[in-house]
Design a protein that fits this description.
Blueprint (H helix, E strand, L loop, with lengths): L1 E5 L4 H18 L12 E7 L2 E12 L2 E8 L8 H12 L5 E7 L3 H9 L3 E11 L20 H7 L1 E7 L2 E7 L3 E7 L4 E8 L8 H14 L4 H4 L8 E3 H10 L8 E6 L3 H9 L3 E10 L1
Parallel strand pairs: 4-5, 10-12
Antiparallel strand pairs: 1-2, 2-3, 3-4, 5-13, 6-12, 6-13, 7-8, 7-11, 8-9, 9-10
Length: 286
């Protein structure tokens, strides 16, 4: 069994790794992916010209690294993961800390991580909103305690189309909140949702999210995505709405997000608008 250490992957290595990862996810019934682009250190074992076990290290900050590992089901139970982990740690700075993510349904992965002394720290939920499941929260309700009416809120929201590290990103923002959506062919990915502290607990975030999702999921976001203007052009949300009416609308895409299991207010809010938990990842520290 030959051990390889590399800092980047060529096309042949990526194909072999993807084949092995697909075997793992099919066998385990999970959907975790391998960080081909994000990691800067890869180690793998090769047997008869095929990659049978691999590990990758993604720098997070300082001495903290996220670690992702897969072993072909036919080669498990032979210490390949432990061997790769030990070899990888030798390549990292002294006193480095590792984060592992494991699907909550994969009890075998949890047992392996616990066996090496990793401790579960938290849970992260992957959530999905299908366009047909979107629920518009009543923005006229006076029970939220917000002083901002729905028309006023819409007038306050602006949009930007950004190119962030090569990824098309839609950013909606007002004087009191901001939210981002990475644009992919099959879906949007929601992240960076923040509400000004003085507006929290008053219903503003609920109204803001509902208003933005209503615009995003009715196809009007295509007016920004396909605009011939500068990738950093700003739009008023009403401009997006009117332009979208005249533009060819693409089929609405689902929205994905990741939220901490300990963030009860965010979980409640997302569920109200129609998001459903599709996967729960357990975070282990080592």
């Amino acid at each position: 069994m030959k051990l390889h250490r590399v800092h980047s992957l060529d096309s042949s290595q990526i194909r072999q790794l993807q084949t092995m990862v697909n075997k793992c996810t099919d066998s385990d019934g999970t959907r975790l992916s391998f960080p081909f682009d994000e990691a800067d250190l890869f180690l793998y074992f090769e047997h008869d010209g095929s990659i049978v076990s691999a590990i990758a290290f993604i720098p997070i900050e300082g001495l903290l690294y996220e670690c992702s590992a897969f072993t072909d089901p036919e080669f498990r139970g032979h210490g390949h993961f432990s061997g790769l982990l030990d070899a990888g740690i030798d390549e990292l700075p002294e006193d480095s800390e590792l984060i592992f993510y494991a699907d909550k349904r994969n009890s075998a992965a949890a047992a392996v991580l616990e066996a090496i002394g990793a401790e579960m720290n938290s849970e992260e939920h992957m959530m999905k909103l299908l366009p047909e499941n979107f629920s518009i929260i009543d923005c006229h309700s006076s029970q939220t305690g917000s002083d901002v009416s729905a028309p006023d809120l819409i007038a306050d929201i602006h949009s930007e189309c950004l190119n962030l590290d090569g990824t098309l990103t839609l950013r909606f923002h007002s004087d009191h909140a901001v939210i981002n959506f990475s644009v992919f062919p099959s879906h949007y990915y929601l992240y960076g949702f923040e509400v000004e502290e003085s507006c929290r607990g008053k219903g503003y975030g609920t109204k803001f999210l509902s208003t933005v999702l209503a615009q995003l999921l009715n196809g009007n976001a295509a007016a920004i995505e396909h605009s011939p203007l500068s990738p950093e052009t700003s739009y008023h949300i009403s401009d997006v709405r009117s332009a979208g009416a005249a533009a060819d609308k693409t089929a609405p895409r689902p929205v994905l997000l990741q939220v901490s299991g300990g963030n009860a207010p965010a979980l409640t809010l997302y569920k109200k608008t129609g998001f459903r938990i599709t996967e729960t990842l357990c975070c282990y520290l080592y």
